[in-house]
Amino acid sequence: xxxxxxxxxxxxxxxxxxxxxxxxxxxxxxxxxxxxxxxxxxxxxxxxxxxxxxxxxxxxxxxxxxxxxxxxxxxxxxxxxxxxxxxxxxxxxxxxxxxxxxxxxxxxxxxxxxxxxxxxxxxxxxxxxxxxxxxxxxxxxxxxxxxxxxxxxxxxxxxxxxxxxxxxxxxxxxxxxxxxxxxxxxxxxxxxxxxxxxxxxxxxxxxxxxxxxxxxxxxxxxxxxxxxxxxxxxxxxxxxx
Length: 241
Ligand SMILES: Nc1ncnc2c1ncn2[C@@H]1O[C@H](COP(=O)(O)OP(=O)(O)OP(=O)(O)O)[C@@H](O)[C@H]1O
What we know:
Helix content: 25-40%
CATH superfamily: P-loop containing nucleotide triphosphate hydrolases
Bound molecules: adenosine-5'-triphosphate
Strand order of the largest sheet: 6-7-8-3-9-10
Largest sheet: 6 strands, mixed
CATH architecture: 3-Layer(aba) Sandwich
Low-confidence stretches: none
Shape: globular
CATH class: Alpha Beta
Radius of gyration: 18 Å
Number of strands: 10
Number of helices: 8
CATH topology: Rossmann fold
């Protein structure tokens, strides 16, 4: 079943067109990885789906509902949760308090404090620690856990592993696999191509605001994705004489 439909979506920052007429769908239970160079438009796309950035053109449908004019907090209520780049935790609050704040906006569902701490065992001993005192990996886990507390049907995670030590990335990806096994639908932006291809069902490669490649991860090689990433698979422009 299709959960998310993105149709001819465009988004701008002033005059700069960051997302240029993008269309794709995400099925329920699917993990879609979005890769692409810095500035390709990935964060803007996620923020636009979450309602944190306005669409300049096109639209987003979620479980058949057109999201035009639906503000970000109402999208959370419908089941869309964004884990933003930079994590954006409340630094002065403890891990548990950060989770509890999100829990207040919760839809009915399986994720409560206990379920979230079971999925992220690394957070259990940190419950009383201030978010600002955590390592990058611990903050990322807290940020994903916080999003889960809203009982999302679609989880959008920006820059899953950026800035994390390899051992922290392993822990975060273990949690992503746990979520997948629990039937979650995820859209993840990931710089690490190997990780993206190993965890996702499908990959979209962004180049300059457009989709340069869309394929099931089982049907595409790392070399093909890399070529799309750098635009090497595009026909070259004939030289002017
Ligand atoms: N707040 C902003 N104001 C102006 N321009 C912006 C803003 N945010 C992003 N941009 C520009 O929009 C384009 C797309 O940026 P975006 O952050 O969506 O790309 P990205 O693929 O997520 O890159 P990164 O991996 O660096 O986050 C870039 O050219 C970027 O410089």
